[in-house]
């Protein structure tokens, strides 16, 4: 069998220079001005504006700003480089908690139901972590551990 003949590709030659045929007052005319590094003429600028209007949403009304005390208002303060007001900080914190609860619920994770280990350092930390008032047993144990720690630090200083 004979191998198939290899066809040679001919170089592409353009018989017409399409770019030079582009009319002013069209988006193509604007593009030609841009490629050539020139200032576009007014009809071409208007054609470009009209072309771009096709990509913008129609009949949009500006959104109403959310009041202080919401996550949106908190973000607005931050974007403006301002310190968020107290109401916005509280609203953002509550919204974050709601989001976390929803994510845990959707993921099937149960909320914290583990009982506190009262009378231990861990119990003290659990109270603090969940924003609960620390019970007397946990506070006493924490204070005892702190006294022990300070005593060892004093002993190291005097020994050294």
Keywords:
mainly alpha, 7 helices
Give a brief outline of the structure.
The protein is mostly helical.
Number of strands: 0
Shape descriptor reads elongated
Distance, first to last CA: 96 Å
| Secondary structure: helix percent | 55-70%
SSE string, helices as H and strands as E: HHHHHHH
Total of DSSP H or I helical runs spanning 4+ residues: 7
Given as residue ranges, the uncertain stretches (5+ residues, pLDDT < 50) are none
Question: What is the topological layout?
Answer:
Layout: H1 18-21, H2 27-35, H3 42-53, H4 71-79, H5 86-107, H6 121-129, H7 136-159
Helix pairs in contact: 2-3, 4-5, 6-7
Description:
It is a single chain. By secondary structure, this protein is an all-alpha fold. It has helices at 18-21, 27-35, 42-53, 71-79, 86-107, 121-129, 136-159. Helix 2 packs across helix 3 (42-53), helix 4 packs across helix 5 (86-107) and helix 6 packs across helix 7. The chain is elongated.
